[in-house]
Structures are given as C-alpha cells and as structure tokens.
Specification:
Elements (H helix, E strand, L loop, with lengths): L10 E2 L5 E8 L9 E6 L5 E5 L14 E5 L4 E5 L2 E5 L2 E2 L6 E2 L7 H4 E3 L9 E3 L12 E9 L19 E7 L4 E6 L15 E10 L2 E5 L1
Length: 213
C-alpha cells in the first residue's frame, strides 16, 4: 500500500490484492470509535481501518486474523495518521476519509482465525517514528506528569463526555500524550501515581505524538 499513500491526499486503490492482518486494537473499551487497528503480518506496519459500525469487536476482536481486500478502498490520513477507508466524506465543513459501510463489510473484510498472539513492541518515547504508527507498543519506565485525587483519564461525568490528553514522561524528560476518550469504560479511573509500563497504540496528530490505550 505504500506506493498509494501520500499525506494529505485521498488515493483510490485499484490493485486486486489483499493484506493479511491481525487486529491489535478494537472498540470494546470505547477508546476507539468506528475503527479497528490492524497490523500487516508481512510488514509489521499498521493502519487504522474505518468502519461505519458500532460494536465492531463482537465480530472483529483483538487477536483475530483478517484478510482485507484492497481494491475499491481509499487510503489517506487524519492529520498525519494513516487510515484506510472508502471514498471521501463531504458531509461536514471539510472533507474526510469515508468509512466502509456495513453492507460491504463482508465483501471487504474476510475473517480468519481467533486468538492470534498479539505482541507489543518494546519502545522508548524517543524512538517512536512513522513505522510505529497504528502499531501496538510497550514503553517501560514512564509515569503520568500530573497525578492526584482529582486526576482521571477523562471526564465522563458531563454530557457529552470529554476527551482529555494526559502527559506521560520518562526518566529522561521525554514526553508523549496519552489521549483518552470520555466514552472509554476506564474514563473515570484515577491516573496511576507510580512509575511503570504502558501498552498502547501509537498515533499522531500533526506533530504531536499520542498513545491510545
């Protein structure tokens, strides 16, 4: 897919091929919405697959192998984050990548085996780069910069719930954002106040490095 991908452009894929992937993140916790994160088993590269459906995890959970047919799909990015979808959605003030409609899911996404081992790659904040986007990573020796009795992952006590960015730092002062949806089932939990490790999907928003639990 690399030859089709250009940041800022919407490119229709015309090759009659598929990619063999494993799902490394789904929408079960509520921290991902209408997308799953898949890693290509041949290249270890990841991408966000946009699907216009809720409860995707009931069919496509973490650890399931899927074969994604590429012909007819569209590849683009959201502020620098590679995404795979279908067409261009012009329903809002600015265009965005369209989602795969439910009626076409079975034609495009062919499900395979369950319980494929999902391995997070060990990384340091300073090492995170383009090849890590949309992949599952694990960082050791980190802690949240601001903790306390009122510091939570996000805010689900208001309507609508509020997504919050929390800063994560390592012992060298390197920093990365942990972005948490107010709809996540862990939104109301207190931030850990100890140093430890985190497992998350690496993302980016423009120049900001981000992690999604």
């Amino acid at each position: 897919m690399a030859k089709y991908y250009t940041v800022g452009k919407y490119t229709n894929i015309d090759i009659d091929k598929h990619i063999k992937c494993v799902i490394v993140a789904d929408d079960k916790s509520g921290n991902f919405y209408k997308n799953i994160i898949i890693e290509d088993e041949n290249s270890d590269l990841g991408i966000s697959l946009l699907i216009d459906e809720n409860e995707i995890h009931s069919t496509y959970p973490v650890g399931r192998r899927v074969f994604v047919k590429l012909k007819g799909l569209t590849i683009s990015d959201y502020n620098g984050l590679p995404q795979l979808g279908m067409g261009v959605d012009n329903s809002s003030s600015s265009p965005r990548l369209g989602q795969i409609p439910p009626s076409l899911m079975s034609q495009i996404i062919v499900p395979g085996s369950y319980n494929i081992p999902v391995q997070a790659r060990k990384k340091k904040i300073s090492e995170l780069g383009p090849n890590d986007l949309n992949t599952l990573i694990q960082i050791e020796g980190v802690q949240f910069a601001n903790v306390g009795p009122d510091k939570k992952y996000a805010n689900n006590q208001v309507d609508p719930p509020v997504t919050i960015n929390q800063d994560l730092v390592d012992c060298s002062g390197n920093r990365v954002i942990v972005r948490n949806s107010g709809y996540a089932d862990f939104a109301n939990e207190l931030l850990p106040d100890k140093n430890g490790l985190i497992t998350a999907v690496y993302s980016i928003f423009r120049s900001d490095k981000q992690l999604f639990i």
